[in-house]
User: Fold this.
Amino acid sequence: MSTEIPYKIYLEESEMPKQWYNVRANMKKKPAPLLNPETKQPVTAEELETVFCKELVKQELDDTTPYIDIPQEILSFYQMYRPSPLVRAYCLEKKLGTPAKIYYKFEGNNTSGSHKLNSAIAQAYYAKQQGLKGVTTETGAGQWGTALSMACAYLDLDCQVYMVKVSYEQKPFRREVMRTYGANVTPSPSTKTAVGRKILEKFPNTNGSLGCAISEAVEAATTQEGYRYVLGSVLSQVLLHQSVIGLETKTAMDKYNIHPDIIIGCAGGGSNLGGLISPFMGEKLRGEADYRFIAVEPASCPSFTRGVYAYDFCDTGMVCPLQKMYTLGSGFMPAPNHAGGLRYHGMSAVLSELYDQGLMEAVTVEQTSVFNAAEQFARIEGILPAPESSHAIKIAIDEALRCKETGEEKTILFGLTGTGYFDMYAYEKFNDGKMSDYIPTDEELQKSIDALPKV
Ligand SMILES: *Cc1c(COP(=O)(O)O)cnc(C)c1O
Assistant:
């Protein structure tokens, strides 16, 4: 095997993936079907098409086609910021004194600052293809809203973003980036929708929540002619689009004969992790190779490790279809001290099924240890990581240190999903020693789990 692995492995344009990989096609036991929340029967394409774009509904329901062509216009857009580099973390390895080889796939090299652009452009493209005027969505921390704004600007599509009011006020620069790309950003709850007005009437001083913003965005999509709602994670179509991360990584690693032993990713709704592991998981499912996959979630929002595998609402507003997934209950609210993203109550149906079959592992990490790892990484590798991404960094470092103890020369791969320039408020808290950890009690979790819909 070659010892001359470059610091950064880039792909040639001709080596870039031309198709997305749908890991569901290789799963013997498929994820459970989405259910209509009223009838509790599997949703039909027609029902989904009132909320989501037609072609995206087709992708959402397709669990048999392994490869799906990426349309040329999306490939052209990908070429503006892809391939993303696969970096050999030589500096980090040296600093840790580990015999392990560490690689990370860096998705933060675009203005939105995260992997979310990979799916935003696909979803905007299919909306445009359908002849729609625009799309609506919600955003919490702001990465998804930013990515969608960029994609819509490129395709000349109207973009309406409902941004959780507290983020709208606390992250004015995120808001301005979206507006610069032409998006219409509304602090949620707002008076623009019936659901928003109802919430404001009841709680005039509310800071808003993701669930409320989703309800407003869905209402906006279904009450305006020519609009559909789009979602940045959790859905199987989003995992499909994010498979470009894993496909590029696999091609780059194959080129240099690198076989990762452990593949690590942070898990909010599961889209980056699902995208990164998809082609590797495909090999595992087909019995061609074996890997250890580790999902890393915050101790304050532990969907995999302390949730239940059950049907639940994807949104707090209870308007989207029911999905069988590892969930803490759609009423679960992460602690207010929770700094980064990854605060979603549930998990991708695909990853939930793979986890349930014992094909991947999950661990939790506490917030201060995540920021410790983030700072260590920033000082050694130069990149200022997003708090979400730093969950993966923390476990990659832990695994590398374990190799130091045992002397094993394992190859570790992790997903570095984005940069943290808009998270300096959280970094400030950490630097001032004011950041705390919070782990919900069993009673707290039980309360939202008890409220799961009966199916
Ligand atoms: C949104 C986001 C995540 C988490 O979302 P997944 O769907 O779990 O990938 C992770 N990192 C960054 C930088 C994000 O913006």
Summary: The pocket of pyridoxal-5'-phosphate is lined by residues 114, 116, 143, 233, 266-272, 341-342, 386, 388-389, 417-418 (CB under 6 Å). The chain has 18 helices and 15 strands. The longest strand covers residues 158-164.
